[in-house]
Write a structure and sequence with these properties.
The strands form 3 sheets. The chain has a 3-stranded antiparallel beta sheet with strand order 3-4-8, with no helix packed on it. A 3-stranded antiparallel beta sheet has the order 5-6-7. The protein has a two-stranded antiparallel ribbon with strand order 1-2. It has 510 residues and is mainly alpha-helical. The chain has one domain (2-506). The N and C termini lie far apart (54 Å). It contains 23 helices and 8 strands. The protein has helices spanning 6-28, 32-49, 63-79, 92-104, 126-138, 146-175, 184-191, 196-207, 228-234, 240-251, 258-268, 270-293, 297-304, 307-312, 316-324, 327-331, 351-376, 380-391, 402-407, 409-424, 432-466, 486-489, 501-506; strands at 2-4, 59-61, 110-111, 116-118, 339-340, 344-346, 395-397, 493-495. The longest helix is centred in the last third of the chain and has 35 residues, at 432-466.
Length: 510
């Protein structure tokens, strides 16, 4: 039996989530502004790492169980396309092109001939890309070759797997798992999903629809809460760090590090970041109200205006300026009814929409939340989750429907975490009604697992059809091409970047 201190697990999480921000400021910006901001963020990082108030129950387990958890992560990420050794979803065409450009081109990545620049959620790729470029400096002969891309993919796979393993450990700490029950953590992470198959059956019976491509999460057309496996397989760059951040938030009750964690989540992707901000804001108001009622208002203000929060706040505008140059942001929202900053819009809502949204929420989250209510009715994070899932279908960002899928990433992880804790930590919950809730949760996981199995089945189907194991999506090669579908390209590049504030002043090209 070994014991992993919760404080060490959380500090490993802080280091992991910080590295992309540090890489962006120091290497990607390549300017004096970046160096100054890097020093500011480094100061915040050391303050956070020296904080002795990090709490949580220590993780007691065995090396054998930790090995099984690590092996589960390696296989999970492998089947998701990491390493370019198996099957990859269609989104990987763009993700491979982005990663190639990060490996083969100078930073910040620009395409002068077409007056474009790469503007995307690149944080997750930066640490393995820097390591790969470092190898290229030591062995110049690999620079620009396919071997460099292969090495980069191995390092990306390792980086992703380490992040998911940290998320597993954080979840085990939150769930207070003991003994063999710790193995339920990877099982539930892989299988957890909304009850999509119920929506699919409704569509088949009511509309006669078919789902030949095995992507059943689109059963409600423009509404989707992606399963944990779907997020890892399709949008891993926006997923791993937000998972880590929200799990740290769940088990840490002080707010003196919120802005630091928020800046790390922002570097991973703005839409999951917005979902996390909802949790942080509501919890801060809740905690502040309680502390003021208890006569601890001064202590709360010291938490809120801690040096960690104040200094980390300086980093936020950098990513805001960077993301704001994205062409999809400049284009604005599609068919807006109410617009804020030309980005967020409230969707048109009709009576039929209300019925569809209600059924969607019931199938994707409502059943889980109803079962979990008995145990978490005193937990503020439960009510924040309820509010988050209800808000998600009502908002759109830009020209697509990504907001509902990516904003919900933190909320889905919270539901998964509460489910794991309900099934593994039974202290004080041994009444008959609790046992019934436990059975119902297992049934829901089994039904939701159909969604996860279709994600795995897609890769198996491609292997049978093509007669080979490796079926990667790597046709695009670079985002410099002019034959990319315009609507998709706008989500990844900035046009006329020479006149953009970020590329002109904060990260001038060489």
């Amino acid at each position: 039996m070994i014991m992993l201190k919760a404080s060490r697990i959380k500090k490993a999480a802080y280091l992991y989530m910080s590295l992309p921000v540090m890489c962006f400021l120091l290497f990607y910006m390549s300017s004096w502004a970046g160096i100054i901001l890097f020093l500011v963020f480094a100061a915040v990082f050391f303050m956070v790492m020296r904080d002795t108030s990090i709490d949580g129950q220590d993780l007691r387990t065995t090396r054998k169980y930790l090995f099984v958890m690590a092996l589960a992560v390696i296989m999970w990420t492998y089947f998701g396309g990491q390493g370019n050794l198996y099957y990859q979803s269609d989104d990987w065409h763009f993700r491979n092109a982005i990663y190639r450009d990060l490996l083969y081109r100078d930073w910040p990545v620009t395409y002068p001939a077409s007056h474009k620049a790469l503007v995307y959620y690149i944080g997750h790729w930066l640490p393995p890309a820097i390591l790969t470029k470092g190898i290229g400096v030591i062995v110049p002969s690999i620079c620009g070759t396919e071997l460099m891309f292969r090495i980069g993919n191995m390092l990306l796979w390792l980086w992703t797997a380490v992040g998911v393993f940290i998320a597993e450990c954080l979840l085990a700490v939150y769930a207070r798992t003991r003994g063999k029950k710790i193995l339920m953590v990877p099982v539930i992470l892989v299988l957890f999903s909304g009850l999509d198959i119920i929506g699919v059956l409704r569509d088949i019976v009511k509309y006669g629809w078919t789902f030949e491509e095995l992507h059943i999460e689109w059963w409600s057309q423009e509404l989707q809460f992606s399963s944990l496996t779907t997020c890892l397989f399709w949008v891993f760059n926006q997923t791993v760090i937000p998972w880590i951040v929200i799990l740290c938030l769940l088990d840490g009750k002080r707010i003196n590090q919120f802005v630091f964690m928020g800046s790390c989540a922002f570097a991973a992707g703005p839409m999951p970041f917005v979902g996390i901000v909802v949790y942080m804001t509501v919890y801060a108001v809740y905690r502040g109200t309680l502390m003021f009622m208890q006569g601890k208002g001064r202590a709360f203000m010291q938490e809120l205006f801690s040096w960690e929060n104040l200094l980390a706040l300086v980093i936020m505008p950098v990513f805001m300026i960077y993301y704001s140059s994205n062409s999809a942001v400049i284009t604005g929202a599609e068919d807006p009814e109410a617009v804020s900053l030309s980005v967020f819009t409230l969707s048109h809502i009709t009576f039929d929409d209300v019925k569809e949204i209600f059924f969607f929420l019931l199938v994707e989250a409502g059943v889980y939340l109803f079962i979990l209510y008995r145990r978490y009715k005193q937990d503020i994070f439960f009510y924040i989750t309820v509010g988050s899932v209800m808000l998600a279908p009502l908002v759109r960002v830009g020209n697509g429907t990504d907001f509902v899928m990516r904003f919900s990433i933190p909320a889905i992880m919270v539901m998964a975490a509460m489910t794991v804790r309900s099934l593994t930590d039974n202290d004080g919950f041994c009444e008959k009604k609790d046992r019934i809730c436990s059975v119902l949760l297992r049934i829901c996981i089994g039904i939701g697992a159909v969604t996860t199995l279709t994600e795995f089945a897609r890769g198996y189907q491609a292997m049978l059809q093509n007669g080979r194991i490796v079926n990667v999506a790597d046709d695009l090669k670079t985002m410099e091409r002019d034959d990319i579908v315009d609507a998709l390209e706008r989500n990844i590049v900035a046009y006329d970047y020479e006149n953009n504030v970020f590329f002109r002043y904060l990260a001038p090209g060489k």
